[in-house]
Automatic annotation (TrEMBL):
Keywords assigned: Oxidoreductase
Coiled-coil blocks: none
UniProt name for this protein: Arsenate reductase
Organism: Streptomyces fradiae ATCC 10745 = DSM 40063
SUPFAM superfamilies linked to this entry: Thioredoxin-like
GO MF: arsenate reductase (glutaredoxin) activity
Domain of life: Bacteria
Organism classification: Bacteria, Bacillati, Actinomycetota, Actinomycetes, Kitasatosporales
Length: 120
């Protein structure tokens, strides 16, 4: 199991605390420092079963500067969104947890983190 975190994020810290309480084995990726490539983002999206706009923090200043809310959300625009996430990792929703069964979850709630635990 791997968890992509921003240490300054309270949701990330809560997810880590729960993983520790449950004795889970996991690897931490500080994705703002160890920035995922576009291919890694595509792989996580496939595991999540989501589109890039589904995991984009559109309320961030960088998103406003890029005008993301006006970007089309369609197959033809998917790569543009992925490239934006790779270039601006702060826009990636957090925490992302990849489970051992090949799936992933956005671990913003205790239920989502427990779901990831149940898959590992």
């Amino acid at each position: 199991m791997e968890i992509w975190i921003n240490p300054a994020c309270s949701k990330c810290r809560s997810a880590l605390r729960l993983l520790d309480e449950e004795g889970a084995e996991y690897t931490v990726r500080r994705y703002l420092e160890d920035v995922p490539s576009a291919d890694e983002i595509r792989a996580v999206l496939d595991r999540l079963g989501l589109e890039p706009w589904d995991i984009t923090r559109t309320g961030e200043q960088e998103a406003r500067e890029l005008g993301l809310t006006a970007w089309p959300r369609d197959a033809a625009s998917r790569d543009r969104w992925v490239e934006a996430l790779a270039a601006h990792p702060k826009l990636i929703q957090r925490p992302l947890i990849t489970a051992d069964d090949g799936t992933a979850v956005v671990g913003r709630s205790e239920e989502a983190v427990r779901d990831a635990l149940s898959r590992s």
